[in-house]
Amino acid sequence: MRKIKVGLIQQSVTTNLSTNCEKLAGNIRACAAQGAQMVVLQELHNTPYFCQVEDVNNFDLAEPVPGPSTVFYGDLAKELGIVLVTSLFERRTAGLYHNTAVVFDTDGNMAGKYRKMHIPDDPAYYEKFYFTPGDIGFKPIQTSLGKLGLMVCWDQWYPEGARLMALQGAEMLIYPTAIGWESTDTEDEKQRQLGAWQTVMRGHAVANGLPVVAVNRVGHEPDPSGQTNGIQFWGNSFVAGPQGEFLANASDRNEENLVVEIDLERSEQVRRWWPFLRDRRIDAYNAILKRFCDE
Questions:
Q1: Which CATH architecture has domain 3-289?
Q2: Catalytic residue, candidates 43, 90, 127, 171
Protein backbone atom coordinates (compact mmCIF):
# COMPACT_ATOMS: atom_id res chain seq x y z
CA MET A 1 0.00 0.00 0.00
CA ARG A 2 1.26 3.49 -0.89
CA LYS A 3 -0.32 5.72 1.70
CA ILE A 4 1.15 9.08 2.60
CA LYS A 5 0.13 11.65 5.18
CA VAL A 6 -0.19 15.17 3.79
CA GLY A 7 -0.34 18.29 5.95
CA LEU A 8 -2.28 21.39 4.84
CA ILE A 9 -1.59 24.69 6.61
CA GLN A 10 -4.44 27.22 6.43
CA GLN A 11 -3.43 30.44 8.18
CA SER A 12 -3.88 34.19 8.25
CA VAL A 13 -1.04 36.52 7.26
CA THR A 14 0.40 39.69 8.81
CA THR A 15 2.47 42.46 7.22
CA ASN A 16 5.60 41.17 8.98
CA LEU A 17 7.58 38.73 6.83
CA SER A 18 9.58 37.16 9.64
CA THR A 19 6.47 36.70 11.78
CA ASN A 20 4.70 34.92 8.92
CA CYS A 21 7.66 32.64 8.23
CA GLU A 22 8.17 31.70 11.88
CA LYS A 23 4.46 31.01 12.26
CA LEU A 24 4.58 28.80 9.18
CA ALA A 25 7.66 27.00 10.51
CA GLY A 26 5.80 26.24 13.74
CA ASN A 27 2.83 24.87 11.85
CA ILE A 28 5.05 22.83 9.54
CA ARG A 29 6.73 21.28 12.58
CA ALA A 30 3.31 20.61 14.13
CA CYS A 31 2.14 18.77 10.99
CA ALA A 32 5.37 16.75 10.89
CA ALA A 33 4.86 15.84 14.57
CA GLN A 34 1.45 14.42 13.57
CA GLY A 35 3.12 12.21 10.99
CA ALA A 36 2.85 14.38 7.87
CA GLN A 37 5.34 13.25 5.23
CA MET A 38 4.42 16.12 2.91
CA VAL A 39 3.26 19.62 3.85
CA VAL A 40 1.55 22.05 1.45
CA LEU A 41 1.40 25.81 2.06
CA GLN A 42 -1.05 28.39 0.69
CA GLU A 43 -0.37 30.75 -2.20
CA LEU A 44 2.13 33.60 -1.57
CA HIS A 45 2.28 32.63 2.09
CA ASN A 46 5.17 34.88 3.12
CA THR A 47 3.25 38.14 2.71
CA PRO A 48 -0.24 39.61 2.57
CA TYR A 49 -1.98 39.22 -0.78
CA PHE A 50 -0.44 42.38 -2.27
CA CYS A 51 -2.28 42.03 -5.61
CA GLN A 52 -5.28 43.96 -4.27
CA VAL A 53 -3.54 47.08 -5.61
CA GLU A 54 -1.15 47.97 -8.44
CA ASP A 55 1.91 49.39 -6.68
CA VAL A 56 5.42 49.18 -8.12
CA ASN A 57 6.86 49.18 -4.59
CA ASN A 58 5.40 45.71 -4.09
CA PHE A 59 8.00 44.32 -6.48
CA ASP A 60 10.42 44.75 -3.56
CA LEU A 61 8.71 41.71 -2.01
CA ALA A 62 10.01 39.44 -4.77
CA GLU A 63 13.19 37.39 -4.39
CA PRO A 64 15.29 35.09 -6.56
CA VAL A 65 14.77 31.33 -6.69
CA PRO A 66 17.03 30.04 -5.23
CA GLY A 67 17.19 32.76 -2.60
CA PRO A 68 16.54 33.46 1.10
CA SER A 69 13.17 31.70 1.24
CA THR A 70 14.39 28.60 -0.56
CA VAL A 71 17.19 28.32 2.01
CA PHE A 72 14.73 28.78 4.89
CA TYR A 73 12.18 26.25 3.65
CA GLY A 74 14.77 23.85 2.28
CA ASP A 75 16.41 23.69 5.69
CA LEU A 76 13.02 22.97 7.28
CA ALA A 77 12.28 20.17 4.83
CA LYS A 78 15.66 18.59 5.55
CA GLU A 79 15.34 19.00 9.32
CA LEU A 80 11.93 17.31 9.37
CA GLY A 81 12.55 14.83 6.54
CA ILE A 82 9.45 15.94 4.64
CA VAL A 83 8.46 17.02 1.14
CA LEU A 84 7.49 20.69 1.39
CA VAL A 85 5.39 22.60 -1.19
CA THR A 86 5.85 26.37 -1.02
CA SER A 87 4.59 29.39 -3.01
CA LEU A 88 6.91 32.34 -3.65
CA PHE A 89 7.04 35.68 -5.47
CA GLU A 90 9.98 35.04 -7.81
CA ARG A 91 12.23 37.80 -9.12
CA ARG A 92 13.76 36.37 -12.28
CA THR A 93 15.43 39.63 -13.29
CA ALA A 94 14.56 43.32 -13.18
CA GLY A 95 11.05 43.76 -14.58
CA LEU A 96 10.39 40.01 -14.86
CA TYR A 97 8.56 38.28 -12.03
CA HIS A 98 6.60 35.07 -11.54
CA ASN A 99 4.17 33.51 -9.09
CA THR A 100 6.23 30.39 -8.46
CA ALA A 101 5.59 27.24 -6.43
CA VAL A 102 8.77 25.51 -5.26
CA VAL A 103 8.95 21.91 -3.99
CA PHE A 104 11.64 20.68 -1.61
CA ASP A 105 12.38 17.00 -1.15
CA THR A 106 13.22 15.28 2.12
CA ASP A 107 16.92 16.10 1.72
CA GLY A 108 16.16 19.83 1.57
CA ASN A 109 17.06 20.17 -2.09
CA MET A 110 14.66 21.69 -4.62
CA ALA A 111 12.83 18.89 -6.41
CA GLY A 112 11.37 21.35 -8.91
CA LYS A 113 9.29 24.46 -9.41
CA TYR A 114 6.14 25.50 -11.23
CA ARG A 115 5.42 28.98 -12.52
CA LYS A 116 1.73 29.90 -12.45
CA MET A 117 0.38 29.65 -15.99
CA HIS A 118 -3.03 31.34 -15.81
CA ILE A 119 -2.80 34.89 -14.44
CA PRO A 120 -6.05 36.66 -13.42
CA ASP A 121 -6.81 40.36 -13.68
CA ASP A 122 -10.01 40.99 -11.75
CA PRO A 123 -11.02 43.69 -9.26
CA ALA A 124 -8.80 43.18 -6.16
CA TYR A 125 -6.83 40.44 -7.96
CA TYR A 126 -4.53 42.50 -10.18
CA GLU A 127 -2.04 39.73 -10.82
CA LYS A 128 -1.23 40.60 -14.43
CA PHE A 129 0.45 43.74 -13.12
CA TYR A 130 2.90 41.63 -11.13
CA PHE A 131 3.32 38.21 -12.73
CA THR A 132 4.57 37.07 -16.10
CA PRO A 133 2.71 33.89 -17.19
CA GLY A 134 4.68 30.72 -16.53
CA ASP A 135 6.99 29.37 -19.21
CA ILE A 136 7.77 25.95 -17.74
CA GLY A 137 4.45 24.44 -18.75
CA PHE A 138 2.41 21.78 -17.00
CA LYS A 139 5.07 19.29 -15.93
CA PRO A 140 4.76 17.11 -12.80
CA ILE A 141 7.51 17.32 -10.21
CA GLN A 142 9.12 14.05 -9.15
CA THR A 143 9.72 13.68 -5.41
CA SER A 144 10.68 10.79 -3.17
CA LEU A 145 6.99 10.43 -2.24
CA GLY A 146 5.61 10.50 -5.78
CA LYS A 147 4.97 12.66 -8.81
CA LEU A 148 3.16 15.91 -8.00
CA GLY A 149 0.91 17.78 -10.42
CA LEU A 150 1.44 21.21 -8.89
CA MET A 151 -0.48 24.28 -10.09
CA VAL A 152 -1.46 27.58 -8.43
CA CYS A 153 -4.85 29.15 -7.63
CA TRP A 154 -6.33 30.53 -10.90
CA ASP A 155 -4.99 27.41 -12.65
CA GLN A 156 -7.56 25.43 -10.68
CA TRP A 157 -10.40 26.65 -12.92
CA TYR A 158 -8.89 25.12 -16.07
CA PRO A 159 -9.35 21.40 -16.82
CA GLU A 160 -6.60 21.47 -19.45
CA GLY A 161 -3.82 21.90 -16.89
CA ALA A 162 -5.09 19.11 -14.67
CA ARG A 163 -5.42 16.79 -17.65
CA LEU A 164 -1.92 17.52 -18.93
CA MET A 165 -0.50 16.81 -15.49
CA ALA A 166 -2.40 13.51 -15.36
CA LEU A 167 -1.27 12.52 -18.85
CA GLN A 168 2.35 12.93 -17.71
CA GLY A 169 1.93 10.64 -14.74
CA ALA A 170 1.04 12.98 -11.87
CA GLU A 171 -0.14 11.00 -8.86
CA MET A 172 -1.97 13.88 -7.19
CA LEU A 173 -3.02 17.42 -8.08
CA ILE A 174 -2.01 20.24 -5.70
CA TYR A 175 -3.31 23.83 -5.71
CA PRO A 176 -1.89 26.47 -3.32
CA THR A 177 -4.56 29.18 -3.30
CA ALA A 178 -5.51 32.70 -2.21
CA ILE A 179 -9.21 33.31 -2.83
CA GLY A 180 -11.97 34.99 -0.87
CA TRP A 181 -15.14 37.03 -0.73
CA GLU A 182 -15.88 40.71 -1.17
CA SER A 183 -18.00 42.01 1.70
CA THR A 184 -20.73 43.40 -0.57
CA ASP A 185 -21.51 39.95 -2.03
CA THR A 186 -24.72 38.44 -0.70
CA GLU A 187 -24.54 35.30 1.41
CA ASP A 188 -26.12 33.33 -1.44
CA GLU A 189 -23.51 34.61 -3.87
CA LYS A 190 -20.69 33.79 -1.44
CA GLN A 191 -21.90 30.22 -1.16
CA ARG A 192 -22.23 29.90 -4.96
CA GLN A 193 -18.62 31.05 -5.38
CA LEU A 194 -17.33 28.67 -2.72
CA GLY A 195 -19.37 25.81 -4.16
CA ALA A 196 -18.02 26.44 -7.65
CA TRP A 197 -14.43 26.54 -6.34
CA GLN A 198 -14.81 23.20 -4.57
CA THR A 199 -16.77 21.61 -7.40
CA VAL A 200 -14.34 22.44 -10.21
CA MET A 201 -11.39 20.89 -8.38
CA ARG A 202 -13.40 17.88 -7.30
CA GLY A 203 -14.25 17.55 -11.00
CA HIS A 204 -10.52 17.44 -11.83
CA ALA A 205 -10.19 14.62 -9.29
CA VAL A 206 -13.02 12.67 -10.92
CA ALA A 207 -12.03 13.32 -14.54
CA ASN A 208 -8.44 12.26 -13.92
CA GLY A 209 -8.90 9.66 -11.20
CA LEU A 210 -6.49 11.50 -8.88
CA PRO A 211 -6.59 12.95 -5.36
CA VAL A 212 -6.65 16.75 -5.11
CA VAL A 213 -5.08 18.91 -2.39
CA ALA A 214 -6.23 22.56 -2.21
CA VAL A 215 -4.79 24.90 0.45
CA ASN A 216 -6.31 28.37 0.85
CA ARG A 217 -5.49 31.22 3.21
CA VAL A 218 -7.97 32.52 5.78
CA GLY A 219 -8.75 35.82 7.48
CA HIS A 220 -9.48 39.38 6.37
CA GLU A 221 -6.86 41.44 4.53
CA PRO A 222 -7.64 45.13 3.96
CA ASP A 223 -7.32 46.89 0.63
CA PRO A 224 -4.35 49.30 1.03
CA SER A 225 -5.98 51.70 -1.46
CA GLY A 226 -9.24 51.84 0.49
CA GLN A 227 -11.23 51.44 -2.73
CA THR A 228 -12.77 48.17 -1.56
CA ASN A 229 -13.47 46.59 1.80
CA GLY A 230 -10.63 44.14 1.31
CA ILE A 231 -10.82 40.37 0.94
CA GLN A 232 -12.19 37.89 3.44
CA PHE A 233 -10.25 34.77 2.44
CA TRP A 234 -12.63 31.86 2.72
CA GLY A 235 -10.35 29.05 3.89
CA ASN A 236 -12.10 25.74 3.24
CA SER A 237 -8.81 24.01 2.40
CA PHE A 238 -9.61 20.42 1.47
CA VAL A 239 -8.45 17.07 0.20
CA ALA A 240 -10.58 15.10 -2.24
CA GLY A 241 -10.12 11.50 -3.30
CA PRO A 242 -10.05 10.25 -6.91
CA GLN A 243 -13.85 10.09 -7.08
CA GLY A 244 -14.17 13.65 -5.81
CA GLU A 245 -15.08 12.57 -2.30
CA PHE A 246 -14.05 14.86 0.56
CA LEU A 247 -11.35 13.31 2.72
CA ALA A 248 -10.93 16.43 4.85
CA ASN A 249 -12.25 20.01 4.86
CA ALA A 250 -11.19 23.02 6.94
CA SER A 251 -13.50 25.81 8.09
CA ASP A 252 -14.06 29.16 6.39
CA ARG A 253 -12.92 31.29 9.36
CA ASN A 254 -10.31 29.49 11.46
CA GLU A 255 -6.62 28.84 11.10
CA GLU A 256 -6.18 25.10 10.88
CA ASN A 257 -3.62 22.40 10.23
CA LEU A 258 -5.05 19.31 8.54
CA VAL A 259 -3.10 16.05 8.35
CA VAL A 260 -4.77 13.67 5.92
CA GLU A 261 -3.83 10.16 4.82
CA ILE A 262 -4.03 9.68 1.06
CA ASP A 263 -3.99 6.23 -0.54
CA LEU A 264 -2.15 6.70 -3.82
CA GLU A 265 -2.96 3.16 -4.95
CA ARG A 266 -6.69 3.83 -4.89
CA SER A 267 -6.36 5.83 -8.11
CA GLU A 268 -5.38 2.61 -9.90
CA GLN A 269 -8.62 0.94 -8.88
CA VAL A 270 -10.78 3.97 -9.64
CA ARG A 271 -9.28 4.24 -13.13
CA ARG A 272 -10.10 0.58 -13.74
CA TRP A 273 -13.75 1.26 -12.90
CA TRP A 274 -13.86 4.55 -14.79
CA PRO A 275 -11.29 4.32 -17.65
CA PHE A 276 -11.67 7.89 -18.85
CA LEU A 277 -8.12 8.01 -20.21
CA ARG A 278 -8.79 4.93 -22.33
CA ASP A 279 -11.90 6.41 -23.92
CA ARG A 280 -10.54 9.86 -24.76
CA ARG A 281 -11.11 10.76 -28.44
CA ILE A 282 -7.69 12.24 -29.06
CA ASP A 283 -8.45 12.28 -32.81
CA ALA A 284 -11.26 14.79 -32.26
CA TYR A 285 -9.78 17.40 -29.91
CA ASN A 286 -7.85 19.65 -32.31
CA ALA A 287 -10.25 22.53 -31.77
CA ILE A 288 -9.22 22.78 -28.12
CA LEU A 289 -6.16 24.71 -29.32
CA LYS A 290 -8.34 27.55 -30.61
CA ARG A 291 -9.32 30.56 -28.49
CA PHE A 292 -12.93 30.16 -29.66
CA CYS A 293 -14.57 28.14 -32.44
CA ASP A 294 -16.20 30.88 -34.48
CA GLU A 295 -17.24 28.59 -37.34
A1: 4-Layer Sandwich (3.60)
A2: 43
